[in-house]
Amino acid sequence: MVTIGMNYNVLPGKEEVFEAAFSSVLDAIEAADGHDHSRLYKGVGGGPNADYLIVSRWGSEQAFKDFTASAAFKKVTNWGAENILAGRPSHTTYQED
What we know:
Oligomer: single chain
Low-confidence stretches: none
Largest sheet: 4 strands, antiparallel
Strand order of the largest sheet: 2-3-1-4
Number of helices: 4
Shape: globular
Helix content: 25-40%
Distance between the termini: 10 Å
Strand content: 25-35%
Structural class: alpha+beta
């Protein structure tokens, strides 16, 4: 198993749009091969933008990469067109020992 931390910095006033979009992303993630579970967390305080973290468990890092390269993922992620993010998201992989 591997845990992926996906960090998003959301523009002020776009929090509801981001959270609604995450619902669609979650539906797609839950149908993906190798996915175990995912949760969305929102940072409290600190800065003009809202920080979000999606913690997602996968059977392997390759399963996660295959999902993010899939048509299903591209279909539900519309961050750029909606002008939601303050910058590029960053992903961190945590391997189990």
